[in-house]
Amino acid sequence: MPNIGPTGFILIILVALLLFGPSKLPELGRAFGRTLREFKNGAKEIMEDDSDRKEVRAESAAKLEQAKQEQPVVQAAASAQGVQSADNKRLPE
Fold it and tell me: Low complexity bias located where (predicted)?
């Protein structure tokens, strides 16, 4: 696909002038600018949400790892005291 050169750009501006008239072009430019600004803000929000999700996942993974490390300690303490597990089986020693 070829790039639009200066001649093509001028042709597009002339066609827009003929279609919309000189009074509507500034309004269209403002509307186009607002649209781009809204798109940019929306993209920023999506990127921020994505980074927030990554932080939450990292925190969850850290908590899960910590719980896994604490679990054998709790089981060993319960076993030493002769406590039975939730399914009424004696915990292995």
Answer: 69-86
